[in-house]
Amino acid sequence: MKTKPNDNRDDLRPEYNFDYSKAVRGKYCKRLLQEGANVIVLEPDVAEVFGDSATVNKALRLLLDFSRSTQHLTKRPATNKKKTAHR
42, 56 in Cβ contact below 8 A? Predict the structure, then answer.
């Protein structure tokens, strides 16, 4: 049985060659943080309902306001039961 010759050549295309010695660490970090570059991907069925990010934000803010306003309805009142010794 013949074995394949060991081929150690670089198979990357020339456009993928990158000189990392010229790279700047964190070059865009400050700008991304200022612009708020958090990305959240919606499921396709949810994305169909909302036209843009402003609509999604408005709906989420309404949901947050609603949950804050109804939070007191689900909390149990604090009780001060005295512990008694069981006989």
Answer: yes
Q: Letter for the amino acid at 42?
A: L
Q: Give the ranges where 5-85 is alpha helix by DSSP (H).
A: 29-35, 44-49, 53-74
Task: Please name the residues in contact with 50: beta carbons below 8 A apart, sequence gap of 6 or more.
Answer: 42, 56, 59
List, for residues 54-77, the tens digit of each pLDDT value: 999 999 999 999 998 888 777 776
56 contact partners, CB below 8 Å, separation of at least 6: 42, 50
Q: Please give the Cα distance from 65 to 59 (Å, whole number).
A: 10
- Render pLDDT for 75-84 as a digit per residue (tens, 0 to 9): 776 676 666 6
DSSP designation for 17: -
